[in-house]
Amino acid sequence: xxxxxxxxxxxxxxxxxxxxxxxxxxxxxxxxxxxxxxxxxxxxxxxxxxxxxxxxxxxxxxxxxxxxxxxxxxxxxxxxxxxxxxxxxxxxxxxxxxxxxxxxxxxxxxxxxxxxxxxxxxxxxxxxxxxxxxxxxxxxxxxxxxxxxxxxxxxxxxxxxxxxxxxxxxxxxxxxxxxxxxxxxxxxxxxxxxxxxxxxxxxxxxxxxxxxxxxxxxxxxxxxxxxxxxxxxxxxxxxxxxxxxxxxxxxxxxxxxxxxxxxxxxxxxxxxxxxxxxxxxxxxxxxxxxxxxxxxxxxxxxxxxxxxxxxxxxxxxxxxxxxxxxxxxxxxxxxxxxxxxxxxxxx
Length: 347
Ligand SMILES: [Zn+2]
Prior knowledge:
- It is a single chain.
- The chain is an alpha/beta fold.
- The chain contains ten helices and 14 strands.
- The chain folds into two domains: 3-116, Copper Amine Oxidase, Chain A, domain 1, CATH 3.30.457; 124-335, Zn-dependent exopeptidases (Aminopeptidase).
- It has helices at residues 3-16, 43-49, 104-115, 118-121, 150-167, 186-193, 247-265, 278-281, 298-304, 307-335; strands at residues 40-42, 54-57, 61-65, 70-74, 79-82, 85-88, 94-96, 99-103, 128-133, 171-174, 198-205, 215-220, 269-275, 287-294.
- A hairpin with a 2-residue loop joins β5 and β6.
- The longest helix is centred in the last third of the chain and has 29 residues, at 307-335.
- Residues 134-135, 141, 150, 203 line the site of zinc ion.
């Protein structure tokens, strides 16, 4: 996390929050102002400072509309829809000092990496993509009723993604090229050895019932924040992993991938979620883990059995990665306007 930029951000928001310092009301929260762990930012303040010129508020939602972006926020929930993509917040939108508010940790790590990704992307240049086809060998992953296996689907999609990215000028490595068993530790280790600039693990889902369907993209959970699917009530881990140095870029990448896959497939949007998967914890570069559909769902398994659908997904994944690198190049240009993206040195 960029501590300095977070501090400046909080300072800006504290300055602009209408409730701050008015009426001599004692703060409800005993933590110091600007404490990143507990600070909250009013939805309306966020809208005003981030260029959302129209705010419509209903009983259950806010609809924020800007020139480029739209954001729908559920009051009391963790789900927002940013430019038609579902993002799961770390903390519910709640009332703070009389105003519906985001946790500052979500503004910094969930919303701004999509709206203004510059600070998290500078120095992230390079063109090396490492793709990780999930499972392999004696580990088949999920197996559909129609007989297709997760390991085979993921390898086929990964090979297709590679073809698209190589054609677009990227250097691409696969952690495995055949039906081979690899430990979870070996996969990010290979990505590190190949100096990955981006690391994307490709999986297919399986759920408790055959109705579950859709696409989701995972990025690494933040220290001190719950995984999206963790409803245990246990205190979240405070551990900081190697992958946490890319928190902002992880979100920019995950959003780009989820958006592109949804546009290509019109699949159910299960959202961008956070987890502490070992692949993501140990990632040596900005990373995401994709769940491209449910093999336990007969309809999605039938689609994943066709080359046409796997090709559609692969094209979308390649486009999502390319869109991420477009943001990286834009960030570098904004930081050093004289240098062209081609001329900028590799970090
Ligand atoms: Zn898997």
